[in-house]
Specification:
The protein is mainly β. It contains 4 helices and 20 strands. It has 2 domains: 138 residues, no CATH class; 178 residues, Chondroitinase Ac, Chain A, domain 3, CATH 2.60.220. The strands form 4 sheets. Strands 8, 11, 12, 13, 15, 16 and 20 form a 7-stranded antiparallel beta sheet that branches. A 6-stranded mixed beta sheet has the order 9-10-14-19-18-17, with no helix packed on it. About 2% of the residues have low confidence.
Amino acid sequence: MFSGYTNANPDWQNAFFASLQNNGVKYYMSGHDHIHQRSIITSPDGKSQVEEIISASNSSKFYTPKALNNANWFGQKSRELSISQERYTVGYSIYTVDGPCVTVDYYSDNRGNWSSDDCYPDGTTPQSCSTPGSHITPTFNFVKKETWGYCNNGKEFLVPQTAAYTTVEDSFEGTTAKILDGTNKSTAVDYTLRPLTKTVDTGWIDVARRYDKNSDYEWNHDLVLASNIFLLRGMADLGTEQTDTYVLSLSYDYHRLLPIQLGKGLLGLVTKDKNDHWVNAVDKNYGGTNKFVFGPYKSGYELGTYGVDLKTGTVWAVVNYAGDFAAAGFNHRD
């Protein structure tokens, strides 16, 4: 788009990237390369960047990425930080805009590994490689492979492999969220063997305003939210919703709680279940054993452990998925 290869007209590129960043553009969406690819691209002068989303192929053509040292890159691949990649499959993305937040759900065929061009779809059907125009459209089974997003009232944290998630911390209208423990243990790489970096994004829903308009934010008489709703995205590898095990802490507003709830520790971190009901956050873990602790988080607590720290005014839980979270008070504990 800059009238040449990746090294062409750097002044144009610098102006374009700066315009995107200065105007709050988070995603630059494109196609043409017949591959699902997410990357952080930096301008030639290193002053601006944007997340580039190359949309998956919707045809019988698939491209294989060139080597990083390919001459036609002109040494510019160092400006690309690889986040996610899927090759040789048909896919699509759904973008959902909800107030200040954008959520992207990427779906693709769960078979994948299709052949390209004249050998489409699988390279074994005799006529697919010998007779032009005789390609056979296979039966696709689309499944959700990846969810990511951002909120204008949140933050983004780049967490490379082996790095701690403890840099993730955000606040909104009196509620503070923080990851207390956990490490990016992913070993996923792209085709050129670059380790993939996590883009961990946060966001918020003002619970006071939502209570006025939507009764669904109060589940039932056993549970009332005591914080703003915290949105967490971008922690899972492509193809799974399970994340590394980490510890999430969220502050609560004691004015929204009953004295008996504070006195007996009848509060905790909650999330939405498949029926859109608020439930104990550890109930949605992949594995683990639920265990309540009346006190602060301590290093070594296993998956499923959760608790309340009255001294710091926070609830916390050891979980292994991302989603929407809040602090809530209970009338009883199962």
